[in-house]
Amino acid sequence: MRPTRAASALVAALLAACGFGAAGPGTASAASVVLPHAIAATRSSDVPSGAEIYQKRKQLYDAISAKTGLDWQMVAAIDQYERTMSRAHPKSRPKKDDAVVGVYVSESDWSGNLNPDPDDDNPSSIRFFYGIGRDGSGDGRAEREQDEDALYSVAVQALKQGISDDDFSIGLWEYYHNTRAVQRILQYAKMYRHFDRLDLRGSAFPLPVGHSYSFRSTWGNGRSWGGYRIHEGTDIFAGHGVTVRSTCYGVVEIKGWNAFGGWRIGIRDLNNLYHYYAHLSGYEKSLKVGDIVKPGQTIGWVGSSGYGKPGTQGKFPPHLHYGVYRDRGLVEWAFDPYPLLKRWERDEFKSLRNRK
Ligand SMILES: [Zn+2]
């Protein structure tokens, strides 16, 4: 499956629309960009807590699952992928503050391209104009901004070819016309199936926090050992062989040699961030591409591999190069992981202290 011409037009549109703000709003880096009044708003008593939101979502996924035959993990995976896109593109995919789902469907996709009424919520006239809007809640109306209707309508699209995993992948491809979207949704479904729960929040600092290591903000610093024109990441200096751990719940997406990064590993998380660990001296033996990991799980060891043919080591002091990239749909942007690293380190010190 290759990107279509429409997809490359989309890439161009995305590039134009997004500018070069590397650290997009939302998810993992939200704390640093949220405005004070927004923080106050999220603390008011009628806003559900994190656990309550997960509970609400799970109920909805179960309901859609019962209606469509898709397992809840697949429904959750579609919704979570869409949520990451809505967070990456808040202007073109506006969501109501109280929306439980992340799914976004444009007016014309919902009501049908030639439908004279873009706000149409009549299921039969929407069908007549080939809109994708369906009534998922059973109230006789197909409302674009109603959680159950929106999620059900997208699930129905994904199921057009059938319900087996292969049919489902083809259905996703036909709906999104984007291999990354399909890959992401299948990765997320695998994670939800593996842990058999929706709430997969948690983080860890990539090295054991008791160990001796040092790092500072090296974003954009051209003299570091990352192999990029600008340095896209943070270098954490530590002794050869110090444990490297996953910072998140995720799926191993890439593992192997890269001329610049040496032995490196890439892990995808549920916020659609790609965590990149480079210059390792070795990998945790049992780890394969497609495996699921959790925060704090050992994935390899600090080394100085890279800058040459496979196995090259020692061209620079041993360190972990850690980078984070946000998938924005068709392109991926690096952002500075330093604030995240500081936060994870602090959180871990705090929980270690509390355990004493
Ligand atoms: Zn580096």
From TrEMBL:
<keyword id="KW-0378">Hydrolase</keyword>
<keyword id="KW-0732">Signal</keyword>
<dbReference type="Pfam" id="PF01551">
    <property type="entry name" value="Peptidase_M23"/>
</dbReference>
<dbReference type="InterPro" id="IPR011055">
    <property type="entry name" value="Dup_hybrid_motif"/>
</dbReference>
<feature type="signal peptide">
    <location>
        <begin position="1"/>
        <end position="30"/>
    </location>
</feature>
<dbReference type="GO" id="GO:0016787">
    <property type="term" value="F:hydrolase activity"/>
</dbReference>
<dbReference type="InterPro" id="IPR016047">
    <property type="entry name" value="M23ase_b-sheet_dom"/>
</dbReference>
<dbReference type="InterPro" id="IPR050570">
    <property type="entry name" value="Cell_wall_metabolism_enzyme"/>
</dbReference>
<protein>
    <submittedName>
        <fullName>M23 family metallopeptidase</fullName>
        <ecNumber>3.4.24.-</ecNumber>
    </submittedName>
</protein>
<feature type="domain" description="M23ase beta-sheet core">
    <location>
        <begin position="230"/>
        <end position="328"/>
    </location>
</feature>
